[in-house]
Design brief:
The chain is mainly beta and 78 residues long. Helix content is 14%, strand content 41%. It is built from two helices and six strands.
């Protein structure tokens, strides 16, 4: 995932992340999404993760706006 970020041009309105629940590098990926011009102003990042794992409130300029739980799965919207 980290390697793909280097090739993305943007700006994007919506980024969907469905990483493995045990992915250790997710905070670094979320921080990398703060790269200039990758997300359009008002753009959104939606991350699927385990409902047992807390998602951070912020990753740089990305601020969690909502979190929904569906059984063992959660979606955090930044």
């Amino acid at each position: 995932m980290e390697q793909a970020l280097a090739f993305l041009k943007g700006p994007y309105h919506l980024v969907l992340l469905d990483p493995p629940y045990d992915l250790q590098g997710l905070p670094q990926i979320m921080e990398a999404l703060n790269r200039p011009r990758l997300l359009r102003e008002g753009g959104m990042v939606v991350v699927e993760h385990s409902s047992r794992t807390a998602s951070a409130e912020r990753f740089g300029a990305l601020r969690r706006e909502d979190m929904r739980r569906y059984g063992d799965t959660a979606l955090s919207v930044y």
